[in-house]
Amino acid sequence: MTLTCFASAKGAPGVTLTALGFTAARAAAGTPTLLLEADPSGGSLAIRYQLGRQPGLITLAAASRHGLNRNEITAHAQELPGGLAAIVAPERHDRTAAILRADGGRLGRFLADLPDLHIVADCGRLDSETLATGLPSQADVLYMLARPVAEDVQPAAALAASARDQGVPVGWVLIGDRPHDPAEVAEVTGTPVAAVLPDDHRAATAMAEGRAEGRGRRSRLARAISAFAAETAPLGSGEEAEQSPARVEPTAHEPKPLAELATEVG
Ligand SMILES: Nc1ncnc2c1ncn2[C@@H]1O[C@H](COP(=O)(O)OP(=O)(O)O)[C@@H](O)[C@H]1O
Ligand SMILES: [Mg+2]
After folding, report:
1. Beta bridge partners of residue 33, listed in sequence order
2. Which of 8, 17, 149 to mutate to test the pocket of ligand 1 (most atoms within 8 A of CB)?
3. Which residue from 81, 84, 83, 159 is spatially nearest to 124, judged by alpha carbons?
4. What's the gap in Å between 48 CA and the centre of ligand 2?
5. What is the pLDDT of residue 44?
6. Which atom of ligand 1 is nearest the CA belonging to 13?
7. Residue 43 near ligand 1, beta carbon < 6 Å
8. Is the N or the C terminus of the chain less surrounded, counting Cβ atoms within 10 Å?
9. Which atom of ligand 1 sits closest to the CA of residue 197?
């Protein structure tokens, strides 16, 4: 079906939380969806939800060396509270990074081709090597998360540009819309904005802890992630195509300092 990758270039903008929410929304909408932890700096779900490290990325990677069977994928997944299926990575960054270096590209090719399963991968903080040869190189779409500040956008834009050069469609998921608005980020970086999520630390914490905000109402952040997942639903789920045109509005205002990036990003 499809391999959707989430990543960042710098900081901790909310890749794990967004990937979790996106997976949950897709699964709730009836698309068989599995979350894969593939962050070279190590997994966090096993610790957070007190799960064993196996089955998980360790067993999946080992199986992939001997020829994976399509029907066995879910055997490497564990159930998170709330019922979501996830393939967890070991928290040790050296261990996870080594697995992804050795097996990431092959796993990506395999996972992107599964007939009945949509894979959402939390690729964590990307570097150019992981992008060129690892799991994200096989993505049907790569979403780069960043806060719209120059020091976060610039390194992520460089990775986005090289992903595009490799033929991987890429879009921004921006956390907040200040100081640089989405249209400006899109224009300056040449990468469309797929979603703008509210910058809301309280809601993010509540979501990570599995609590609903307020009197049982879902937060704006949770709803924004669900809407994003619905708008970009993969082919075959009865929704519109993954690569629906991103909401990129033309900019009519004066160039702001972020425009300096254009020369560096190319
Ligand atoms: N949309 C958001 N707005 C504000 N804070 C967020 C948002 N998403 C995540 N966070 C917070 O940022 C921190 C890092 O989140 P996490 O999902 O682990 O990021 P990453 O995987 O990029 O390191 C957590 O404290 C989380 O609650
Ligand atoms: Mg993370």
Report:
1. 118
2. 17
3. 159
4. 11
5. 95
6. 22
7. no
8. C
9. 1
98-142 residue pLDDT tens: 999 999 999 999 999 999 999 999 999 999 999 999 999 999 999
Residues 169, 243 contacting (CB under 8 angstroms): yes
Dihedral angle at the C-alpha atoms of 133, 138, 140, 142, nearest 10 degrees? -30
pLDDT of residue 256: 45
Tell me how far apart the alpha carbons of residues 28 and 204 are, in angstroms, rounded to a whole number. Answer: 19
pTM reported for the whole predicted model: 0.90
How many domains are contained in the chain? 1
Closest CA to 23 of 41, 45, 42: 45
Which parts of the chain have pLDDT scores under 50?
237-256, 262-266
Q: Which domain holds residue 259?
A: 3-265
What is d(CA 178, CA 137) in angstroms, rounded to the nearest whole number? Answer: 30
Question: What digits encode the pLDDT tens for the residues 153-167?
Answer: 999 999 999 999 999
Tokens 């399963």 belong to 117
User: How far is the centre of ligand 2, averaged over its atoms, from the C-alpha of 14 (Å)?
Assistant: 7
Say if ligand 1 is within 6 A of residue 201 CB.
Answer: yes
**CATH code of residue 68:** 3.40.50.300
